[in-house]
Write a structure and sequence with these properties.
heterodimer; A: about 290 residues; mainly alpha; MetI-like fold; two-stranded antiparallel ribbon; 2 strands; about 70% helix; B: about 280 residues; 14 helices; globular; disordered N terminus
Chain lengths: ~290, ~280
């Protein structure tokens, strides 16, 4: 009797302790998500008294909207670009630094540094680097006698997207490196010794020992990268506003433009819901994949 | 045999040199944008157009710093960032500690469904709520206040905070709590007197992670704070560079004002920083 009493009292304490978190989360996360879904079935300019119910019309429109598919493709390019320009170099640098070379902490600090900065700073600097008149790239090209290759990189519809991807990956590869370094510390050193005795060279050791040993972390970093890339907003908003002609538009920036600049609130909510479904789907696939592995 | 040995040693040095060359090249690539800011901040408006690596006709770092500080209101932006960051971190750390402890050490009905319900929040992008939240904050009379940003960032920081604190408390032995209870402590007293003093390592990571995320957040204040005098640092810097768009040395100085405290903090607290930030990604 007394035991039962004490259990229910301690479970009451449990509820009281999680209540503040549940309230804050409910009011600022769960409730507005439900509102987003409801809003995505309406046409609304954000000011009118009445929201007009339109059923799935916004979703049909989004499927046919060329900017939505372009933004989606740009997001995919961002993901691929970040895997090639940040995850892969991050992995290679981590393997090199894991050899305990003198000066590794200094290199680690330098490579990680850009990750600390707000995206505003990153964007401003890279806009300068790409500047057609005095930017570092064009200046270098001119000095090297390659003046015919100079261009306004961010205004050029062929290069603008990759110019933003390079700026994004600049802040990201050091972060990947740190994640891989942490994983490499847990790899059994005797495996390397055994491979070396068997006569494996550095590349063979990398492919046959290092990569399989830290495969879960590699998958995790790739999944994290893909998800993170779908949330990118600041860098595009400041560097290009999605231009030239939506060539650098991403789903997140397009949602913002539709909802807050052009007042298609219902349509903006619809794209936001699609973006959320996409991110959740990627997460679920990843979790499923990982559970199966374990 | 001896011949082979020296050959191997020679190739080892060659490989090391090669690796260092690659590392130095990557370091230069990483640092060039930062050096560009520094070089631009140190010269006059006129010198900027000759490129950031040309020889400057005068050294103007301090004058530019004073100019940027006065015309750019950076003192104000820093104050606003502190006003937003401090309560947000306090909110997340306290609610996450309470919740994390309850989810780890107290059994109650619905514990794991409620935990997973909160955990899903780690996967939800802010865009999922950004539009209706604007109108919701307006109806709550919070739009345009610091609280709109504090509560929103706080709510989105909670899932990770609770996840982390729960993992931390779970790793502490249950015997500590049981012993305290045998000594006559209630659940709350056991939490307060026994578990809380042990929580510092987890707190440092959570504080660093949450502070960075709040300090650098751009989109949330962009949407919900409209008063110029209330803008936090990244937002202030964005509007500042849009206004002085041709005065590159002043914009560069603004950038330095923004990142210098981050660089210093990072170098001082590097170990904690890296574990705080990597945990945000690795433990998902």
């Amino acid at each position: 009797m007394s035991k039962k009493h004490s259990v229910s009292r301690s479970s009451l304490t449990g509820y009281i302790m999680i209540l503040p978190a549940l309230v804050l989360y409910g009011v600022f996360v769960t409730y507005p998500i439900v509102q987003s879904i409801i809003l995505s079935f309406h046409r609304w300019d954000g000011a009118a008294k009445v929201k007009q119910f339109v059923g799935g019309a916004n979703y049909l429109q989004a499927l046919k909207d060329p900017v939505v598919s372009l933004a989606l493709m740009n997001n995919v390019a961002w993901a691929v670009g970040h895997i090639l320009l940040a995850v892969l170099p991050g992995l290679i640098i981590a393997v090199v630094l894991a050899r305990k070379l003198p000066g590794r902490v200094t290199f680690q600090t330098i490579f990680f540094l850009p990750r600390l900065f707000p995206m505003v700073v990153v964007s401003i600097v890279w806009v300068w680097i790409y500047n057609p008149v005095f930017g570092l790239i064009n200046n270098t090209l001119r000095a090297a006698g390659l003046g015919s290759f100079t261009r306004g990189w961010l205004g050029d519809s062929q290069f603008a997207l990759w110019a933003t991807i390079i700026a994004g990956s600049w802040t990201y590869f050091g972060f990947c490196m740190v994640l891989f370094l942490a994983a490499l510390q847990n790899v059994d050193q005797t495996l390397y010794d055994a491979a070396r005795i068997d006569g494996a060279n550095a590349v063979q050791i990398f492919i046959h020992v290092t990569v399989p040993q830290i495969r879960p972390v590699i998958t995790l970093v790739i999944a994290y990268t893909v998800i993170d890339v779908f949330k990118v907003f600041d860098l595009i908003y400041i560097m290009t506003r999605g231009g030239p002609g939506n060539k650098t538009q991403l789903l997140a920036t397009y949602t913002y433009r539709r909802a807050f600049r052009e007042n298609y609130v219902g349509y903006g909510a619809c794209i936001a819901v699609l973006l959320t479904i996409l991110v959740l789907a990627i997460s679920v696939v990843f979790i499923h994949y990982r559970e199966r592995k374990v | 045999m001896r011949n082979l040995f020296t050959k191997m040693k020679g190739s080892g040095i060659l490989i090391k040199t090669l690796l260092y060359c690659v590392l130095i090249m990557v370091a230069v690539y990483t640092l060039i944008p930062l050096v560009t800011i520094g070089m631009t901040a140190a010269r006059s408006k006129r010198d900027v157009f000759r490129g950031p690596f040309s020889f400057p006709s005068e050294f103007r770092l301090f004058q530019n710093f004073i100019d940027a500080w006065t015309v750019g209101h950076f003192g104000l932006y820093i104050k606003n960032s502190v006003i937003i960051t401090f309560p947000t971190v306090l909110l997340v750390v306290s609610l996450a500690t309470l919740g994390g402890y309850a989810f780890a050490k107290i059994s109650f009905r619905g514990r794991s469904p409620l935990f997973y319900y909160l955990l899903v929040g780690m996967m939800i992008p802010f865009q999922a709520v950004m539009i209706p939240l604007y109108f919701q904050l307006r109806d709550m009379h919070l739009l345009g206040t610091y609280w709109s940003v504090i509560l929103t960032i706080g709510a989105f920081g909670l899932p990770f905070g609770i996840f982390m604190m729960r993992a931390f408390f779970r790793a502490l032995p249950m015997e500590l709590v049981d012993a305290a209870k045998i000594d006559g402590c209630s659940e709350i007293q056991a939490f307060w007197h026994v578990m809380m003093p042990l929580a510092y390592p987890a707190w440092i990571c959570l504080i660093i992670f949450q502070s960075m995320w709040t300090w650098n957040n751009f989109l949330i204040p962009l949407l919900y704070i409209h008063e110029e005098s209330m803008r936090p640092l990244p937002l202030g810097l964005m509007f500042y560079q849009a206004r002085y768009t041709t005065n590159f040395s002043l914009v560069a100085t603004g950038n330095i004002i923004t990142i210098l405290p981050l660089i210093i903090l990072f170098i001082v607290l590097q170990r904690h920083f890296i574990s705080g930030i990597t945990m945000g990604a690795l433990k998902q």
